[in-house]
Amino acid sequence: MSITSFSQLPLNQALAQRLVDLNYMVPTAVQSVSLAPALTGLDLVVKGKTGSGKTLVFSLALLNKLQPECNEVQALVLCPTRELADQVAQEIRKVAALIGNVKVQTLCGGTPIEPQTRALQHGAHIVVGTPGRVEEHVFNGSLMLTETQTVVFDEADQMLDMGFTETLESILVYVPEVRQTLMFSATYPDKIMKLAKQYMREPEFVEAKEEQA
Ligand code: ADP
Ligand code: MG
């Protein structure tokens, strides 16, 4: 189902109001085709160019089911680079502002691990990170993913090109099989299709009409 207005979505009040406050008036093309299935909990592979508004798709999907009173990592977002992870974490915090007390923790390499470990001890609802550092925290036991309901691969084609396939696979071993997995990519190379087939449950492939060849 394709939507023309955010009001057609089953969003909780804090998110619906926040979209109004942020002046997000109409869904972008990719949002109009992917938000409804994303919010019903389906596994999706979403194709869209840079700047098409993909971050909001997974932000709303994971935040709409987040339980702030539950002090566990409920969503994991994996990004190819630290810069992207920082941007994504910022966008999630921005969209979550009216929910109150949502803890978003970034876990990226190139910086000491200890402060991240201490931060995780104080609890995190959402982790946004790069594969290598996230794997390290999982192996250390500092990051528990047993209550994680949503896994997002952002810029998946780029992550796979960087050689993170095995790292992603080893992280997924620690996430419950019953979950929502959302994959975002600018292209659909074979590696993406293979990962989707192996780790997603009957994923739907969506892309904006104007982007179809
Ligand atoms: P992508 O991940 O597809 O490259 P982003 O999610 O980073 O794109 O979105 C690009 C920009 O568009 C961001 O600054 C975001 O805040 C803005 N944006 C996203 N959706 C909307 C919308 N529906 N209306 C207005 N601005 C939006
Ligand atoms: Mg993006």
Uncertain runs are: none
Helix content: 40-55%
Topology pattern, helix = H, strand = E: HHEHEHEHEHEHHEHE
- Please state the average pLDDT score: 96
- Give the CA-based shape: globular
Number of strands: 7
DSSP strand content? 5-15%
Q: Provide the spatial order of strands within the biggest beta sheet.
A: 3-4-2-5-6-1-7
- Computed over alpha carbons, the radius of gyration is 16 Å
User: What is the first-to-last residue Cα distance?
Assistant: 20 Å
Produce a short descriptive summary.
The protein is an alpha/beta fold and 213 residues long. 41% of the residues lie in helices and 14% in strands. A seven-stranded parallel sheet has the order 3-4-2-5-6-1-7, with helices on both faces.
Describe this structure in words.
- With 213 residues, this protein is of the alpha/beta class.
- 41% of the residues lie in helices and 14% in strands.
- The chain has 9 helices and 7 strands, in the order ααβαβαβαβαβααβαβ.
- A 7-stranded parallel β-sheet has the order 3-4-2-5-6-1-7, sandwiched between helices.
- The longest helix is centred in the middle third of the chain and has 14 residues, at 82-95.
- The radius of gyration is 16 Å and the shape is globular.
- The two termini are 20 Å apart.
- Bound molecules: adenosine-5'-diphosphate and magnesium ion.
- The site of adenosine-5'-diphosphate has 12 residues, from helix 3.
- Belongs to the DEAD box helicase family.
- Residues 35-206 form the Helicase ATP-binding domain.
- It comes from Pseudoalteromonas maricaloris.
- Residues 4-32 form the DEAD-box RNA helicase Q domain.
